[in-house]
Every structure is written in C-alpha cells, then in structure tokens.
From TrEMBL:
Keywords tagged on the record: Hydrolase
GO molecular-function terms, A-Z: triphosphoric monoester hydrolase activity
Organism per entry: Martelella mediterranea DSM 17316
Domain HD: 75-219
Name by which UniProt lists this protein: Deoxyguanosinetriphosphate triphosphohydrolase-like protein
Keyword Hydrolase: yes
Length: 405
C-alpha cells in the first residue's frame, strides 16, 4: 500500500519563520531516509521515549529519595512535566512542538542516581579525568551508550535535537572558543569535532523554551513536594510575596478549602503566571530582534525565551526559599551524605576491580583500558544506575550501607 504523505497533516501548523523547520533539518550524523509517517523531530522524540535511559528516570531522584513515598516527583515525572510546559510554550510561540518536547524529554538523561548529590560525588571522583557533567553525559548516552541500532551507536538524533540538548541553557563558548563559565566538558568537545553543534551561539527557540520550562516545572513541583513532606509550610511560603499573594487569592475565593486542593490551586496559578510571563517576554523580544530564521535566533546574542525582570526576581526568591528549607535542610543533608558515600564507594570498588561491573558489555576488554578510559567507563556505568540499583549493589558489596530514610 502506498502512503499519501500529503494527507498526513504535515505542515498543518503554521510555524513562525524563526522556528526550526523539520523538513530543513541539518540532518543526522549517520544519514537515514525520511519516514513516511513522521517528521524528523517526531522521530527524535519517539526514539528518546523508547530508550533505556528514559525508563531509568522512573527510579532516579528528583529531590526526595524514592523511599520517602510514591507521590513525590522522580526524574521521570519531572521530565514529563517539563515536556508539557515546553510544548505549551512552543505552541503559543508557533515553534516546532515536537522538537521542544524532545529536548525537554532528553534534558535529564545524564543524571546519576540520587540527583545532584550523586553528580557532585561522581564529579569529585572524576576530577583527575575531566570531571563529570550531567549534560555531557546526556550527550554520551544518545550518541554512544544507547545501543539499539545495527548501524550505529546511540540513537542518531538530528543536529537540532543534539544542539538543543547541549546548549539549552545558553552558549558554551565565546566567539574565541573559550569556555563560558569554565571549560567545556571533554565529551561535548569530542562529539563536536565530528558533528559541530555551534557551541558559541545560542540554541533554537525550541531549546530555549525547554530550558525555561525546566525552571517553571521544578520551582512549582518542589514547593508541592516540600509541602507534602512537611519541610515547607504555608507560613514559610509567606516569605515570597508572590506566593503569599497567590495564597490570599485562593483563600479569598475558596474559604475553608481542604489542604490538598488549596496547594493545587496555588501551584496551577504559579505555573500559569510564569508561563504567561515567558510568552509575553519572548513575544516582545521576537518583535525587537525580528529573526527571520532559526539561525538568526541562534545569532541574536541573547536568550529570547526568558522571564521578565520582575518574574526573574520571583524565581530567585523561590529558589532561595527552596534552598534554605529543603535542599539544605539538616535531615536532607544527612541523606545526601549517605547517598554520596554510596556513589563514592561504588566508584572506588569498580576502579579497584572492574570485573565487579559484571560479565557484559561494560567489561569487555576492560583490562586494556588506560586509567582515564577506565574511569570514564566506570562513570558511565554508575551514572546509568537507578537509586534502587545503586543502593542494592552497595549492600551486596559492603558490610554497611547508609540509611537513606
């Protein structure tokens, strides 16, 4: 049967001139024929969802360890929430929704078990070998470590998806090639030597909305989870005038509302306010810069999808609230210390005896690796672990495993 591609709805959404056009993609490192039923960016999104790395996000920490309860966000639920916000922003700005969603879905692939705690511990152990960066690890996963295809390693995403993954938070180099905010992680430089991702420019609008969606999502759901855990209270939210105003609005409209509904009413108002702020700022920036292509967005010299100064201050206040009451809460710090110990112990054990990683692809030819190669190999293995797997593996290898409750 022959498929009539013109009847599939491709191109029905009128993309803005500054959006990434899937039919004018810079392509993939390994050329592939187009799909008859999906655009290149739709294929990227679908490939991301079907990876092992995506499934592992279900058992990786966002803020609270999985043992704390089933209703707290994990990396997976966080990622889905980011993708939803990114897609909403993309639609409002007439961008390619599939590319924005794909960048959002892949942005946390490289996170270790136990969230940023695990990343910090692994970065310290890898200090002599170029360090560890979760963004660079995400790139390694989708270009090397996922092994799903007969003809290439990785999942062979489009240039635009990889660019968005690497640069969604902004350029990595200045015009002279010097790293911005520190050296560019070596895995990113190594890949760009084969497939130049334009490290000195900003990313596409699609990647920019994915990045700001990440801020919107975790600012909101960390408050929700904080209230659920008891680390935050409504009185503490009064420290941020914006949140105090939302609570006053909800109480005034719905007096005596039960706690769970009250929290949800606050959260959805917060998301709406932040999303609408970003849309307004992006529209104004787009009118000012007037880019006529995605490349003109990249060369604009500024992030176009961002908060207004007033909302940026609210964002700063919310982060300060979360940092003080949750991220640096003494009880959380004890758990973080134990989680860091687990990652550190496992790294040392695998360096001393690589065969502990098992008789599978991770240990093939392990005895021939140089120290730096072995360390990166161990980092790949550790970063791929879920919280549960890391914890249970530590219990098998050591007499004492820290209590993460």
């Amino acid at each position: 049967m022959t498929i009539d591609k013109s009847a599939l709805g491709f191109g029905d959404v009128a993309l803005a001139p500054y959006a990434c056009n899937p039919w004018k993609s810079r392509g993939r490192l390994y050329p592939e024929p187009d799909s008859l039923t999906r655009s290149p960016f739709q294929r990227d999104r679908d490939r991301i969802i079907h990876t092992t790395a995506f499934r592992r996000l279900k058992h990786k920490t966002q803020v609270f360890i999985a043992n704390d309860g089933d209703h707290y966000r994990t990396r997976l639920t966080h990622t889905i929430e980011v993708a939803q916000v990114a897609r909403s922003l993309a639609r409002a700005l007439r961008l390619d929704e599939d590319l924005a969603e794909g960048v959002a879905l892949v942005h946390d692939f490289g996170h270790t078990p136990f969230g940023h705690t695990g990343e910090d511990a692994l970065h310290e152990k890898m200090a002599a070998y170029g360090g560890f960066d979760h963004n660079a690890q995400s790139l390694r996963i989708v270009t090397k470590l996922e092994r799903r295809y007969a003809e290439f390693d990785g999942i062979n995403l489009t240039w635009e998806a990889l660019e968005g993954l690497v640069k969604h938070n902004g350029p990595l180099q200045d015009a002279e090639g010097k790293g911005i905010g520190g050296p560019v992680p070596q895995p990113i430089l190594d890949y760009c030597a084969r497939h130049d991702l334009w490290l000195s420019t900003h990313a596409s609008m699609e990647a920019q909305v994915a990045a700001i969606a990440d801020d919107i999502a975790y600012n909101t759901h960390d408050i929700d989870d904080g209230l659920r855990s008891g680390y935050l209270s409504y009185d503490m939210l009064e420290e941020v005038p914006f949140l105090a105003g939302l609570m006053y609005e909800v109480r005034d409209r719905y007096p005596g509302l039960e706690s769970s509904r009250f929290t949800n009413e606050i959260m959805r108002r917060q998301i709406t306010a932040m999303v609408e702020d970003v849309i307004g700022v992006a529209q104004e920036n787009l009118r000012t810069v007037a880019p006529q292509s995605a490349d003109e967005v990249r060369r604009a010299g500024m992030t176009l999808a961002t908060f207004s100064p007033a909302m940026a201050e609210i964002d700063r206040q919310i982060k300060k609230l979360l940092f003080h009451h949750i991220y640096r809460n003494p009880n959380i710090m004890v758990i973080r210390k134990g989680a860091a110990q687990i990652v550190t112990d496992l790294f040392d054990a695998y360096i001393d005896d690589p065969k502990l990683m098992g008789e599978h692809s991770w240990s093939e030819g392990i005895e021939r690796l140089e120290p730096a190669q072995l360390a990166r190999h161990v980092a790949d293995y550790l970063a791929g672990m879920t919280d549960t797997y890391a914890y249970n593996t530590h219990r098998q290898l050591f007499d004492h495993t820290p209590d993460l409750r």
